[in-house]
Specification:
The complex is a heterodimer of chains A (358) and B (306).
Chain A (H helix, E strand, L loop, with lengths): L1 E6 L5 H25 L4 H10 L5 H26 L7 H18 L8 H27 L3 H21 L34 H18 L1 H11 L1 H6 L4 H28 L10 H11 L4 H25 L4 H22 E6 L1 H5 L1
Antiparallel strand pairs in A: 1-2
Helix pairs in contact in A: 1-2, 1-13, 2-12, 3-7, 3-10, 3-11, 3-12, 4-5, 4-6, 4-10, 4-11, 5-6, 5-10, 7-8, 7-12, 11-12, 11-13, 12-13
Chain B lengths: L1 H29 L7 H19 L2 H25 L4 H19 L25 H6 L3 H19 L1 H11 L1 H6 L4 H27 L11 H11 L4 H24 L5 H5 L1 H15 L1 H7 L13
Classes of the chains: A mainly alpha (358), B mainly alpha (306).
């Protein structure tokens, strides 16, 4: 028995839409196997992971909180991956964005006006874009591999933020805990409603998803991204510059990751501390692929990934399943997304070897 | 003098996992496949080696567990990229994300448990010789395996027919296919070999270097191994230089942290990563060197026509 691929003349419109759902289904089947191996009831497991968080308001709100950074980063990565550039250091750009934005309330203590928050958001985006520009420039100027340099910069950013919150920016009244002083109210992202955890970062994510979707599908810039992404050679003939695109793509994805960072700092935590790096930058890679590199798809995918986070927390409390199972689910999901995407370009046929030789 | 011997020994220990993982990845890339999942295969090797040693009480069985785990895990990558022609970069990332999660789950019960260390070899008389006794005759078995592996890989790639075929597959899969070389089979074997090497590299971490199970203990070493392959411009001999350079940087930053010097510990911890970036830039600037040796079909999928 062997698997044969036959290239389709055109991408299959059916599977273009269906492949993320096939991947989700396969992930759940793999989940059943995993729960059985762990000696847990698979039905309860799947229910706890994928259904229960949707049933109570507290969990629903936590999903909104987690989906915010995932969507923002995922949308940026979608632009970058579409253009054929591999930014896998979004986690670092997210951290630097958070630190850049946090610099304003740290260096301007006592200042508390409404201008503070917009300025912080812009600083966060600037920080993320500048940090994202480093691997882009190293690639265009020297030809250094952007996958490796952008990833290495994640480790550097983690150490840098760790140092900031422990040494120069540490709250002297913080009982020795790492972290800046809590931000004044003018530096806090407003909550979506009173006593909410979810904040206006989510609104930014929705608006940006629509804007980026429009740019990608309806403008010349979007066309340029698509052409350079599918063939750098074709792009050159069309007069597009692959180098400038690399810098553009890294700056856009860096800025969005930085925005996610400052939104998390100003909206969810209210200060910069040592727990900002939660791996959203890596989970957002899955968001980008599950959303099929479409900004609106990424928005939806961010909620799916956020669901697995909250479902994982619930399963840990209710069923005693390790919270690492969440990362296993996420990894499996990316595998199945990539496998299902094959169906878009190829017809898959399973041929028995016996029949072939006969 | 003894101080220097112990420093060199610790550099060897820090470099061995890098060298092993990079050697495996070099063969994979020479066959035209870019597997970014080294970090994931390595951590799977680390946790399974630790588990194997705990279950059987024998670190050598543990190392075998690590090798098998790395190789088995790489099969996932091989299936997706070779059979389903999935994007290699994304699949490699998936392997790393899955490996980090899965190893955390497998290793949960082992956190904090005292490890079973693979002891250094002790040859009577020879290991007692001044200076070279310890360095040449008194190291751990995996260290010797890593050096032997580099030599074997060099011999295989540049002095054997099969190695020539593997390089042909990596430079032009269509030509190799036309010559009757099994492109997918060659690549699959290369990927599994790379997985086994990464698994052994992980085993070295959890059985020799640390030796304990700590979640995420690879700490980017799989990624540094990937950078080393570029640094070595796909030549096995140069991997030794690269791996030992990085091992030395790592040990140097440990000693500097111990000494203080008033440099923030966070800066010293990030030194190996900054070094990696600097080295990648310096190597990439020399276009001629990289152009000659880069496998021409690196990262390109191959679908056999029928």
């Amino acid at each position: 028995m062997r698997i044969e691929l036959i290239k389709r003349a055109d991408a299959s419109p059916l599977f273009s839409i269906a492949s993320p759902f096939i991947a989700l289904l396969l992930t759940m089947i793999a989940g059943v196997i995993m729960f059985l191996l762990l000696g847990k009831d698979p039905a309860t497991g799947l229910y706890t992971y994928f259904v229960q968080p949707l049933l109570d308001t507290w969990s629903l709100e936590q999903i909104l909180v987690k989906a915010t950074p995932l969507a923002l980063i995922g949308i940026g990565l979608a632009v970058c991956f579409r253009s054929g550039n591999w930014n896998i250091g979004a986690e670092g750009q997210y951290l630097i964005g958070g630190a850049f934005g946090a610099a304003l309330p740290v260096f301007l203590p006592g200042v508390d006006t409404w201008v503070l928050l917009p300025a912080m958001v812009l600083m966060g985006m600037l920080g993320g874009a500048l940090y994202g520009a480093i691997p882009a420039l190293l690639k265009t100027r020297f030809g250094a591999n952007e996958i490796l340099t952008s990833l290495m910069l994640v480790y550097v950013a983690q150490q840098l933020v760790d140092w900031l919150v422990r040494v120069p920016w540490r709250d002297p009244k913080g009982m020795g805990f790492p972290g800046t002083p809590s931000f004044p109210s003018g530096a806090q992202m407003p909550k979506l409603w009173q006593y909410a955890d979810a904040h206006y970062g989510l609104v930014l994510a929705v608006v940006l998803a629509i804007i980026v979707w429009f740019v990608l599908s309806r403008t010349m810039k979007g066309f340029e991204i698509a052409v350079l992404g599918s063939s750098a050679r074709a792009g050159r003939f069309a007069g597009f510059s692959a180098r400038r695109m690399t810098i553009f793509a890294f700056c856009v994805s860096g800025a969005l990751a930085g925005l996610a960072g400052i939104a998390e700092v100003s909206g969810t935590v209210g200060k910069l501390d040592d727990k900002l790096s939660l791996g959203y930058g890596f989970s957002a890679i899955i968001v980008a692929f599950l959303g099929r590199l479409n900004p609106l798809g990424c928005l939806a995918a961010a909620f799916v990934l956020a669901l697995t986070y909250i479902g994982g927390e619930n399963a840990q409390i209710a069923m005693g399943i390790s919270d690492r199972a969440t990362r296993v689910f996420q990894g499996l999901l990316l595998f199945f997304v990539l496998a299902s995407d094959t169906l878009i370009q190829y017809q898959v046929r399973i041929v028995s070897t016996a029949a072939r030789s006969a | 003098m003894d101080v220097w011997v112990s420093i060199i020994l610790s550099v060897c220990a820090a470099s061995t996992p890098l060298l092993l993982a990079a050697t495996g990845e070099l063969v994979v890339e020479r066959s035209g496949v870019l597997n970014l999942g080294v970090e994931g295969m390595m951590i799977m090797g680390a946790v399974c080696a630790f588990a194997g040693a705990q279950l059987t009480g024998d670190p050598f069985v543990g190392a075998l567990f690590g090798i098998v785990a790395g190789a088995a895990f790489s099969l996932l990558f091989a299936f997706l990229t070779l059979i389903l022609v999935a994007n290699q970069v994304a699949t490699g990332l998936a392997l790393t994300i899955l490996g980090l999660g899965l190893s955390g789950m497998i290793g949960e019960g082992f956190v904090g448990q005292p490890g079973i260390k693979m002891e250094r070899i002790d040859i009577p008389f020879l290991s007692d010789l001044p200076i070279i006794g310890q360095l040449v005759f008194g190291q751990d078995p995996i260290f010797y395996a890593s050096i032997a592996l580099v030599i074997a890989v060099w011999f295989f790639l540049f002095r054997s027919r099969k190695g020539l075929q593997l390089r042909a597959v990596g430079d032009s899969h269509s030509s190799a296919h036309a010559l009757g070389i099994g492109v997918l089979k060659t690549r699959a074997l290369a990927i599994v070999f790379g997985g086994a090497c990464a698994g052994l590299a992980g085993a070295h971490l959890s059985l020799v270097y640390v030796p304990q199970w700590v979640e995420g203990m690879t700490a980017g070493r799989g990624w540094i191994a990937l950078a080393l392959v570029v640094f070595a411009s796909w030549r096995p001999g140069r991997l030794i230089i690269g791996a030992y350079l990085f091992g030395a940087v790592n040990i140097a930053q440990f000693h500097m942290q111990a000494q203080g010097f008033g440099i923030p510990a966070q800066f010293l911890t990030s030194l190996p990563y900054i070094t990696t970036i600097v080295v990648l830039v310096l190597i990439a600037r020399n276009r001629r060197l990289t152009m000659i040796n880069t496998p021409a079909a690196l990262g390109q999928p191959f679908v056999p026509d029928r």
